[in-house]
Amino acid sequence: MTSVAATTSAPIVAMGAGKEPTSASTTESMPLLPAPQSVSDPLSVLFLLQSQNEQMGLQSGTAKVQGLQQERHTALVKEQSAIKAEAAAAKHKSFWDKLGSICAQVAKVAGVVASVAAAVATCGAASPLAAVAVAGAILSTAGFVSSETDVLQKLGVSDKLANILNTAMSVGGSVASLGAGAIAGAWNVVSTTSSVVSGAGNIGSGASGIASGHALAKEDEASADEAADEFAQDNLTRFISHVVQQTQNADDQDKQLLSTIGQTKGMEAKADLAVATGTKG
Amino acid sequence: MDTVQFLAELRGNDVPAYPLGMSKVEALYAAGHWLLSQERFVDAAKIFRMMLRLAPSDERSWLALGTCHERIGQHRIALELYGTGSVLGVAAVRCHLARARTLRVLDRDDEADAAMDRAEQLAAESDDDELVTLVLREKGRRAA
């Protein structure tokens, strides 16, 4: 099995077309990352992703969904308002129950991620699991933008917030008001950390889209999910194209990386938003 | 002509053979794994962050992203990611092992021992010989 070690010196088989295996310079000897499925050329995998995404007819699908939503919204809104109020209360409580449970566990071993997840969730992000995933991605991106110490200091979970995670959130329901101050504070810190946070902030505006989506009938809601997912795919496609372009020309890759990192972050931030809005719990 | 052919021709190659049945998550993992093997940690991390969002309960997402940070010397960020993966992943033995290693690097030996014990317990419960072997080798390496 070919593996990439977390900190290993084990040889790593390069999968690039026509390239020889290379070794990663590392400090330990035990591989931990399992080998991926056998791929003769990883670039072709990127091409495959790109091709699949483009074949989905993203724009037409989105327009169709928008038309459906507009058409049905007026007729359904009255009928749904009563149902919505009852269902939203239950769903809201369930969401925070789950988030509180997950964050309480995560906070024991990863307080920063749990903290950021709570902040993401207050923006209305998707499912609890997705909120934690976005939090991890934010931490990672910030880490590549700024120094580790700086990031951890700025994103570090405070005692106050830790208490909220472990108590108030697990109660559920009232976290938005209970934790608003602390979480907003943490979020403001996040906002100063790197440009990726602007993308995460966009999740907030995306969340308002989710909120209005709750007013739709079940069928329309499923369609909205589909549109959001397609939007995510579109951004994923653009991102992959970006990576492919970089990879094709090894001589220029360093310069390209430097010059396009900002653009990539923008795409990634949009993908954050789209994924968050497309994976409602 | 589809996009794959077009891009392949631009590259001056024949259309490469690729596994059509491969899932998006697996494709991202394969691509990120390759970038990591090339020590392109920034690029690999971008791919793994995508994978993370698509498959947050897949321990490889957290493990691979943590590896990117570890390889650039950001052990505490890696620890955060390994820790989260160890909670969200199902029987995330590898994340526990990675966490144990990182805790060891940070001179937090008691916590490292606890993480190692947890990895050993999960490996035993999994009935996966590969994981059991992985833990035993890790313990042996540590003892040596």
Biggest interface, chains and residue tallies: A-B, 79 and 78 residues
Oligomer: heterodimer
Number of separate helices of chain B: 8
Compressed to H and E, one letter per element, the order of chain A equals EEHHHHHHHHHHH
Can you put this structure into words, describing what you see?
The complex is a heterodimer of chains A (281) and B (144). Chain A is mostly helical and 281 residues long. Chain A folds into 2 domains: 40 residues, no CATH class; 237 residues, no CATH class. Chain A has a two-stranded antiparallel ribbon with strand order 1-2. The radius of gyration of chain A is 21 Å and the shape is extended. The two termini of chain A are 36 Å apart. About 34% of the residues of chain A have low confidence. Chain B has one domain: Alpha Horseshoe (Serine Threonine Protein Phosphatase 5, Tetratricopeptide repeat). In chain B, helix 4 packs parallel to helix 6. The longest helix of chain B has 18 residues. Chain B is globular. At the A-B interface, helix 1, helix 2, helix 3, helix 4 and helix 5 of A face helix 1, helix 2, helix 3, helix 4 and helix 5 of B.
Strand and helix map with partners:
The complex is a heterodimer of chains A (281) and B (144).
Chain A: E1 11-12, E2 22-23, H1 42-54, H2 58-109, H3 111-122, H4 128-145, H5 148-155, H6 159-171, H7 175-178, H8 180-191, H9 196-213, H10 218-248, H11 253-278
Antiparallel strand pairs in A: 1-2
Helix pairs in contact in A: 1-10, 2-3, 2-4, 2-6, 2-10, 3-4, 3-8, 9-11, 10-11
Chain B: H1 3-11, H2 24-37, H3 41-54, H4 59-71, H5 75-88, H6 93-105, H7 109-126, H8 129-143
Helix pairs in contact in B: 2-3, 2-4, 3-4, 4-5, 4-6, 5-6, 6-7, 7-8
